[in-house]
Amino acid sequence: MGLGALRLMDVRGTTQLDVRLTHGTVEKWEVEGVEGLVHNLNDLTREVPGALPCAVLGEWEDMLQLWCAPKDVLAAALNERWLDARNLSTLTRLLC
Question: What residues are paired with 66 via a beta bridge?
Fold first, then answer.
């Protein structure tokens, strides 16, 4: 079963998001910035075939750099030890 669509319904303050999933469920997410959002999205899609996990690579010119890639590509990068992601522990759990 695929994830389908995800729609951001509301932003409250600096950390609360109301997110609606395709099947109509509205979830309230407490997130700390983009990295928190990436964490929630990786968690939400961990069992979805074809979903691309997202690695948080760090900042460059005041922008957070993200890399979304197929699970086999991320696993190979982790095995070669060249992927220096801020969310390395999360990616390791997702790929095992």
Answer: 56
